[in-house]
Amino acid sequence: MKEWYVVNDVLWTIANKGKIEGYLCIGCIEKRIGRKLDYLDFQPMMINVIDGKNKSFRLVSRLSPQSSEFVRRAERMRDTIIYFNTHFVY
Does residue 2 fall inside a structural domain? Predict the structure, then answer.
């Protein structure tokens, strides 16, 4: 199974340490950002469409909305703020 996907530019820059090109599996990008990806993190592109063709279960589970958009956005924002407040010195 494959994990080809495109996340939003800001998230990719953070996860890939400023490099434009590259590839990270779902587990590696999640480890770098300190939380699980969710469907709001992905770019609206055909590569991110769930089509049943060779996508890993892990990727499909991240591309699928699990709860209301409001709750997911709030959780994502909270997790991101907590992560950066504990890992970066201002």
Answer: no
Amino acid at 80: T
Would you write out the chain's pLDDT as a tens digit for each of its 90 residues?
Answer: 689 999 999 999 999 887 778 899 999 999 999 999 988 999 888 888 877 778 888 998 888 876 456 556 667 777 887 887 787 665
The identity of residue 66, as a single letter, is: Q
CB 47 within 8 A of CB 6: yes
Q: Which of 28, 75, 88, 85 is nearest to 7 (CA)?
A: 28
- Whether residue 29 is contained in a domain is answered as yes
Number of Cβ within a 10 Å radius of residue 38: 20
Asked whether 57 and 15 are in contact (CB, 8 A), the reply is no
Q: Domain range for residue 66?
A: 9-87
